[in-house]
Amino acid sequence: MTNSPPTDEIIAIIDAHKALEGPLLPILHALQDTFDHIPQAAGPLICDALNISRAELHGVISFYHDFRDAPAGRHVLKICRAEACQAVGGKALAEETLAKLGLDWHGTTPGGAVTIEPVYCLGLCACAPAAMVDDRVIGRMDSAKMQTLLEKVGA
Amino acid sequence: MKDFIIPDDRDMGTPAREGAPVTLTIDGFDVTVPEGTSVMRAAAEAGISVPKLCATDSVEAFGSCRLCVVEIEGRRGTPSSCTTPVAPGMVVHTGSSKVRKIRRGVMELYISDHPLDCLTCSANGDCELQDMAGAVGLRDVRYTAPEGAPLDNHFEARDTSGENHRYLPKDDSNPYFTYDPSKCIVCSRCVRACEEVQGTFALTIEGRGFDSRVSAGNIFDDFLSSDCVSCGACVQACPTATLQEKSVIELGTPERSVVTTCAYCGVGCSFKAEMQGDTLVRMVPWKQGKANRGHSCVKGRFAYGYAHHQDRILNPMIRDRITDPWREVSWDEALSFAATRLRALQEKHGQKSIGVITSSRCTNEETYLVQKLTRAVFMNNNTDTCARVCHSPTGYGLGQTFGTSAGTQDFDSVEKTDVVIVIGANPTDGHPVFASRLKKRLRAGAKLIVIDPRRIDLVKSAHVEAAHHLPLRPGTNVAVVTALAHVIVTEKLYDEEFIRTRCDWDEFQAYAEFVADPRHSPEATEELTRVPAADLREAARLFATGGNGAIYYGLGVTEHSQGSTTVMGIANLAMLTGNIGRPGVGVNPLRGQNNVQGSCDMGSFPHELPGYRHVKLPEVRKIFEDAWGVTIDPEPGLRIPNMLDAAVDGTFKGLYCQGEDILQSDPDTKHVAAGLAAMECVIVHDLFLNETANYAHVFLPGSTFLEKDGTFTNAERRINRVRKVMAPLNGYADWEITQMLANAMLKESGGANWTYTHPSQIMDEIAATTPSFAGVTYGMLDEKGSVQWPCNEDHPDGTPLMHVDEFMRGKGRFIVTEYVATDEKTGPRFPLLLTTGRVLSQYNVGAQTRRTANSVWHGEDVLEIHPHDAENRGLNEGDWVKLASRSGETALRAHVTERVAPGVVYTTFHHPDTQANVVTTDFSDWATNCPEYKVTAVQVSASNGPSEWQEDYAAQAEMARRILPAAE
């Protein structure tokens, strides 16, 4: 899919955050911000720099759903699946959206425009069902709003 | 057979604490425990077991299972007893109806995701989940599947809707245990044991919530490919069948256990041999063992299969010439054949023409008998032991400086140390259980200085990093140690008060003047040692000023032409800095073999009777002459190299070699082979037809440590009991065989028979003749578990720390340590320096570990070479290379790595088909003849496969191992 990012760039990111107290999460965030995922090649470099084992690193990365091992589509659409949203039709909306795009959760549209992910509560229970596109949260979603949204992101 | 009763093996839930006493009330009983103790442990002290799953006393509390909740008066809620420390006056209720209900609810959730196949489960009867379900009175699981869908779970491979994506199959990649995720309750005990006890950090919990799983390494790893070192700590910690020994899966749960001592390295771990009848089901580290404190490594825990390996020889064999095939005979015939030959050799070539080699793998009692054989039956002092080729310089060096030939501390001492120097040792491979204890202390903040040509794992591995690594050139130990002393003396960092009160001040003055000479400065020696001067200065300052300083060293110190000098230099460093005589400090040789300390203590050396007393002293000889009813030769006998030289010269003709493979383990294989071939009666007493047996005339089958009673003495001078758990497959314990050989010879010469019927009688004789063992009896060892010598009237409970108020010799003695370069030098033909060592999974010559599944980790010896040197020679990873020295050559595969410095290559000596020692030379320590294994000038070049020598050797070995079918 993508060529693996250059080692020096990864090392530069690691070094920039190494002196922080508890540097691992800032490093992982910075890597994901730069490469849109945590490149596999970064693993041994992080372990070496922080003197941790690869098991420990795996434990941390796999704990956080937001860290990816491959880049997502150009946009990420998260649909809330928590109780409040489910109670007002969130589940149906999610199923409908997935069916429309022919995707399963975590799937990306063929052109690479959008990746669909589940999320468990965006803190918008008062205006459920809720969704989030990239960094923007949207309340009171329905089929029509979803359709407009999908068109806007090019899905 | 008397089983040893295990005193108190309960799981107390959380680790012990030290601190001021605190009294609280638990369920109406007053309990007093040290401050910082958990409520759970306090309850256990009072005999009350609070139900628990995620807590075990080998790791810190975690508080995740919520089964151990209790009520505490005046506090809200139901805190977990494992994570709640005691407080004065606290009133705790562990069994109120409220906590009972909570526990039952928690258990119900656990069981809703656990298969109910208890009757066919490998942990049946040994499962804490099962026990806790019983303890909380779980009678029903009310969770049911939603309509039209299965109940979400991890244990069904398939459900009504098809494949269960949460199900993971068993990982049985490790040869000794399996990981079955379907049984896992994600209590994290394995992960924490790997981190806290072993210190490898090979395991983690991946994912979160219901997706959480134990994972070895990364997503693409299994247990074998992960960092796992197979120490067994996770298996030990697992409360269910998730991590389970394959032997238990195959055989079932054991019915009894016997406490005994591991027969591998010098750490001397205590184990419970868990048995079904006379079948060994598993070896489990014993929590009360004072050397290992409940931990183990892959060798002691799992690699015992050699005891029943098909290669083991169970019948005595003889042959007239070494070119003949072996002939199986009765014990009587073999022993009288041997006795007649030995007596004939003595008649023809003189009393001193035969001798013995005692074994560092056999018990103290057996070693004592073998040296007694040479002194009281052969009537000479021709006894030596494999310590000659490993720690003889320790005996000499520490004897000269401190007055006794042994380490100064117990292993617990490492918990109090602040700065550690590890020199010429690789504890994570050679002494893994000690390494784990050291790493635990390092993670708690102690500083580490590594002095080693290789970047060993301790230099940098997960959560451990040496403050200084001084990568010296092989052969320059003395220069480096003296330079460290130079910095301490010239910068006035020494402990003057200690030196004035404990050491000879005049000798110190002379020594200080010597080391202060600018030619010993780090700057002056940098070119020679290749250790950056600034780094060395910092290391010296750290050691002198960093608090409790301890030095641990291994064969990288002793196996040099100046081995004894380095040992004395190390002793000087400890005295200079006042690091002797209290916990957390000291000089600690890491002994290679299980009983190398004991074999030295037992008088195996040609110049010393038991207890390191010179054979020339009439008062010492008198003790043994009275005990044995013989006259002892006052002349010291021959050392191993002298025996071999004398054999080549034709004056040494017969050898009884017990449990040692000198052909593979001793340097300059060709010379050893020539010596053995020149002898007329070589008796090999061993488990297997080892390499030395290729040159033997008599083979006496030996017994394993599982098949006999006795004692081993470990690196901390601890005398540990070895207990018989099964009858010897070969018919006799080794001490019985030595006694039969002695009696066969005495029959020829008309002497009185030896009549020992149990090893305890031999120990009684040792105690009666040897002051440092005077208080030792089997009864006492059964009672105390173990004892560290000296154990006598002055020290009735033994001696964990030596030289507390004064040195054994009185005043500590500083000895001048002049560096003299070895004669083994690199040049145009042999430009690289070879140094040798071992790996974790294999042990010594590999006779035992090669006959176990440990070979999956290390199937052959490889040559570590720096990328720079490899590139110069056009060598790639995995290529066959020829390794040649002035002595000989062999071929093996290359491993290109930066662990070794440019100019240095490294290999192990575990495999006879490589025979690294065909390359090593016969240079040796000036004082003790300990061979210089650690420095050989070599050349490495590309090769197509095994060398001609290796092919000849393999052919000869095959011929020499032929056994005729037994005569009807």
From TrEMBL, chain A:
Q: Superkingdom of this entry's organism?
A: Bacteria
Amino acids binding [2Fe-2S] cluster: 80, 85, 121, 125
UniProt xrefs under NCBIfam families: PRK05988.1
**Per its UniProt record, what Gene3D superfamilies does this chain match?**
Glutaredoxin, NADH-quinone oxidoreductase subunit E
Cofactor dependence is on: [2Fe-2S] cluster
> Which named protein is this?
Formate dehydrogenase subunit gamma
Indicate the family of this protein.
Belongs to the complex I 24 kDa subunit family.
Which PANTHER family does the entry mention? BIFURCATING [FEFE] HYDROGENASE GAMMA SUBUNIT, NADH-QUINONE OXIDOREDUCTASE, E SUBUNIT
Family matches, as Pfam families: 2Fe-2S_thioredx (PF01257)
Details of cofactor binding: Binds 1 [2Fe-2S] cluster.
UniProt keywords (A-Z) are:
2Fe-2S, Iron, Iron-sulfur, Metal-binding
Kindly list the GO molecular function terms attached to this UniProt entry. 2 iron, 2 sulfur cluster binding; metal ion binding; oxidoreductase activity
From TrEMBL, chain B:
Q: Where is the 4Fe-4S Mo/W bis-MGD-type domain?
A: 255-311
Residues annotated as signal peptide: none
Domain 4Fe-4S His(Cys)3-ligated-type spans what residues? 98-137
Please tell me one Gene Ontology term that the record gives under cellular component.
membrane
Write out the GO MF terms.
Answer: 2 iron, 2 sulfur cluster binding; 4 iron, 4 sulfur cluster binding; formate dehydrogenase (NAD+) activity; metal ion binding; molybdopterin cofactor binding; NADH dehydrogenase activity
Q: Locate the 4Fe-4S ferredoxin-type domain: which residues?
A: 175-206, 217-248
The UniProt keywords, alphabetically, are: 2Fe-2S, 4Fe-4S, Iron, Iron-sulfur, Metal-binding, Oxidoreductase, Repeat
Instruction: Please cite one Gene Ontology biological process associated with this protein.
Output: respiratory electron transport chain
User: What Pfam families does the database record attribute to this sequence?
Assistant: Fer2_4 (PF13510), Fer4_7 (PF12838), Molybdop_Fe4S4 (PF04879), Molybdopterin (PF00384), Molydop_binding (PF01568), NADH-G_4Fe-4S_3 (PF10588)
Stored InterPro entries: 2Fe-2S_ferredoxin-like_sf, 2Fe-2S_ferredoxin-type, 4Fe4S_Fe-S-bd, 4Fe4S_Fe_S_CS, Asp_de-COase-like_dom_sf, Formate_Dh-H_N, Formate_DH_asu, MoPterin_dinucl-bd_dom
Q: Which SMART domains match?
A: Molybdop_Fe4S4, NADH-G_4Fe-4S_3
**Stated name of the protein:** Formate dehydrogenase subunit alpha
The major lineage groups are:
Bacteria, Pseudomonadati, Pseudomonadota, Alphaproteobacteria, Rhodobacterales
